[in-house]
Amino acid sequence: MLRCSDCIERAVVLCECNKSLFCTKCCQPHTTEKSYENDTLNHNLISIDQVLLEGFSNSWEAKTSFIKRFGVFFEGHLDQIKSLNISLDGNFLVSGSLDKTVRVWDLQKKLQIAMFIGHKSPVNSVIFSSNQNLIISGSSDRTIRLWDFLEKNQILILNGHTKEVKSLAMAHDNIFVSAGEDNYYRVWKLPKNYKGNSSEKIKSPKIYVGVDNKLSIKRNHIQNNAMKIIDEQKGKIATLVNMKINCADFTSDLAYVVLSLQNKTICFWDTHKQCIESELKGSTSDIYKMSISKDHKYVLTASDENFIRVWDIANKQQIGILEGHEDSVTCVVFSDDRNFVVSGSKDRSVRVWDFNKKTVIAIFNGHTYDITSVAITTDNLYVVSSSIDRSLRIWSILEKRQDSEYIGNTDIIWCTAISPNNQYAIFGTKCMKIGLYNLFEKRLEVFLEGHTYMINRIIVSNDNAYVASKSPEERIIWNLTTKTKEYTLEQKIIYSLAISPDNTYLVSGVLNSLALWNLKTKRLEKVLTNHTGCVICAVISKNNEFVVSGSRDLSIIVWNLQSNNLVVVFKGHKDWVNCLAMTSDCEKIISGSSDRTIKIWSISSKIQIFNISLNTDNVTCMKISNNDEILVVGSRDRTILVWNLQEMKKINVLKGHTYSINSIALSYDCKYIVSGSADNTVRVWHIDKDEALYVINDHNDWVNGVYISNDNRFIVSASKDKTVKIWDMEKRMNVAVMIGHTSIITCLAVSQDGKYAYTASQGGVIRCFDLEGKKEEFFIFPLEEENVCRWIQKYPEFNVCLNEFAEFDD
Question: So where does this one cross the membrane (predicted)?
Answer without folding.
Answer: none
